[in-house]
Amino acid sequence: MPDASNIVDLRRLLAERFGAAVRPRATPQRDVLATGLPALDSQLGGGWPRGEVSELVGDGPGSGSAQVLHAWIRQTAQEGQFLALADGADSLDVDALEPAVLARLLWVRSRSADEALKAADILLRDRNLSRVVIDLKLCPVAELRRISSSLWHRFHRLTEHQGTTALVLTPLPLVSGAACRVRMANRLNLATLQAGPDVTAQTLSFELLRSTAAAGGAAQEAVG
Q1: Could you tell me what percent of the chain has a pLDDT over 90?
Q2: Domain contains 21
Q3: Residue 223 confidence (pLDDT)
């Protein structure tokens, strides 16, 4: 077996002769959009993956999923972009958002999951909209369980083709083939909610249930 000094000399010689050709290739980085919440971005590898469908699971009131939505709307406005929201239960609290932020939001108010999904199908086909949220969190679970997996497949194809970043808010894991799935891991009390968005953001915690790596597209899911 060659000693260590010989191996070092060989590597140096190869580097001098061939340069970058013999260096290991860097792992390609996923193209992402910042969520507006540094703690969430760190778990996602920078933000929501562009051109894919992600899922945020928040069960019941006080889960914090609405605050995550507000943070992304604010982040979108800060970047001078627009976000479209298909609201399945007409539940967006517009009083929680500043007028300048609301000016960057296209809000489609729906009365059922079916209406919201039909609206989302149209929104995802519009090349002028690079960010689409489908809020199904407050829709009846019976409605959500009737959603065909073929619909999610179609949404995946649309986001990939159009380069749209889509986020679905749900009360339980629902979106088959989601590029990433995050579950809200704590509850917010009334005092925290009244303290303002900056304080609320610091108290939010997340559990990454599923993540699809950019290289090779391999899915990794939490077990247990």
Answers
A1: 71
A2: no
A3: 38
Residues ≥6 apart with Cβ < 8 Å to 212: 49, 52, 179, 180, 218, 219, 220
Cα(159)–Cα(131) distance, rounded to whole angstroms?
10
Q: For the chain, percent helix, then strand, then coil, each to nearest 5?
A: 40, 20, 40
**Domain limits at 89?**
28-221
pLDDT in tens, 174-208: 999 999 999 999 888 777 767 777 777 888 999 99
Whether 159 is covered by a domain: the verdict is yes
Give the CATH number for residue 55.
3.40.50.300
Q: What is the pLDDT of residues 164-183, one digit of tens each?
A: 999 999 999 999 999 999 99
Tokens 């605050």 -> residue: 67
Report the domain count for the chain: 1
Distances in Å between the Cα of 82 and the Cα atoms of 2, 36, 48, 164 are 60, 14, 15, 12
Within a domain: residue 189? yes
The CA-atom distances, in angstroms, between 167 and each of 66, 164, 194 are 12, 10, 26
